[in-house]
Design brief:
This protein is α/β, with parallel strands linked by helices. It has helices at 8-14, 55-70, 79-95, 97-108, 112-134, 169-182, 197-208, 223-232, 245-257, 282-294, 314-324, 346-361, 395-398, 414-422, 437-446; strands at 21-23, 26-28, 35-39, 46-51, 140-141, 148-156, 159-163, 186-190, 216-218, 238-242, 262-266, 272-275, 306-310, 365-368, 372-373, 381-382, 385-388, 405-411, 426-427, 429-433, 451-454, 469-470, 487-495. The strands form 7 sheets. It has a 7-stranded mixed β-sheet, sandwiched between helices. A 5-stranded parallel β-sheet has the order 9-8-7-10-11, sandwiched between helices. The structure holds nicotinamide-adenine-dinucleotide.
Length: 499
Amino acid sequence: MNAPSPDWHAAARALRIDGRALIGGERVAARGGETFDCRSPIDGRSLGGVARGQAADIDAAVESARRAFDDGRWARKAPAARKKTLLRFADAILAAKDELALLETLDMGKPIQYSLAVDVAATARCIAWYAEAVDKIYDEIAPTPHTALALITREAMGVIGAVVPWNYPMIMAAWKLGPALAAGNSVVLKPSEKSPLTALRLAEIAVAAGLPEGVFNVVPGYGHEAGEALALHMDVDAIGFTGSTRVGRKMLEYAGRSNLKRVYNELGGKSAFVVFDDFADTARAAKTVAGSMFFNQGESCNAPSRVFVHERVADAFLEVVAAEAPKYAPGDPLSGSTEMGAIVDATQLKTVLGYIEAGRSEGARVLAGGSQARVESGGFFVEPTVFDGVTNAMKIAREEIFGPVMSVIRFKTEAEAIAMANDSSYGLQASVWSDNINRAHRVARALKAGTVHVNQYDEDDITVPFGGFKQSGNGRDKSLHAFDKYTELKTTWIRIDGE
Ligand code: NAD
């Protein structure tokens, strides 16, 4: 029998958060004693104070991470031993699923059912997957002349700085932690100031599961303070960054101004969803785009926010999209059946409403939604919104909104669709919908994006790389390729006499 689901409101009322940083295996207040207020977007209520990390806290965390790396307490453990500890960590995440899901929902507003089924589950799976992988990877021997042996090996880099956003706080952290820790590195994680709570608990859970102290540190704080200090630090070997393209640019500058640390940027998106008139099941395409666009309040880097539809099927397609949109109307994130939750904070709410206003004033037509919702809750909610009559030149088609706003653009020819889909500074994901196998392959090849979906948009797995072309970034999270980011490739030449 399934356990009864918790009374999430009662659990939320009973929750006491510990907002202190975690450095060297211990919870500590910020060196300067400052905190910032952590507010829930569900109702605007304060959840408590969180340590406002600054350069001195980052220094302490990097020092602790460096010490842990250099003395080999983790890096020099056998891969099978690291695997064992990380599997315990993954199990402990699942054992704490209700608490982690509640923290995630209260902190950033997503529906509790998805915090549980998606965020906690994917976080544990990610850690476990890299744990399982690490004792199954072999290095290489080069095909050199017999007089020498050349070993090509991968080595852990050292101290990795991870700076992550608020839309999937735990999953984004896990995509860095999984490969970085499994490979033997130490990590200093700087969560978003909008969603610091689960990162702090994850680190505590990791320490309790046996991860040696200093190997995984968390310093919460603002981007321009703790984030900048981490990215400028002379003793950090690489930055795994997920966030906006604006801050991604700064990360590259920080590396240039400091020690040329490796910077792996996973940035924004404006993904194209291209529906041809030879795709028979228009309704399935329409339902898929609504589900993918409005999932996570539209706060997904890969949300299919630019929808290109052949003019012959556009009306039928839009009829279904307009009927689907209200099914994602925002509700109480702590209620088990809610599909869409709260926008992360008042600033992001204002940004999203500003884009809706821009769409209207540029002449696009609101087909569904278009307004703030649940104002009486004290939280930040927006209706799932669909714009028809958009052109690819409009602001709502060019800029990442990061909210539940879909822009629909009609096209006449395949060439026109490809040209418009690629006419974006972003290139994270794209999809093509066609029953013509030649067209599907042709368009999939032509689309400039890190991931292209054909006749679906939902598939996702830890086994495949995730990352962008163009200004959507350069790194790849997930899959075995992610190990490349957190390891150095070394060649060792060995002379063999007597051959
Ligand atoms: P953001 O760039 O504002 O912040 C991301 C992180 O960087 C936060 O921890 C923040 O505190 C920190 N930061 C901000 N300014 C900084 C500075 N000057 N120096 C150092 N660190 C700084 O992004 P956000 O609003 O938190 O997240 C939304 C963005 O993330 C969107 O653009 C979204 O597309 C992107 N994203 C990308 C992926 C991907 O895999 N490509 C996944 C999720 C989110």
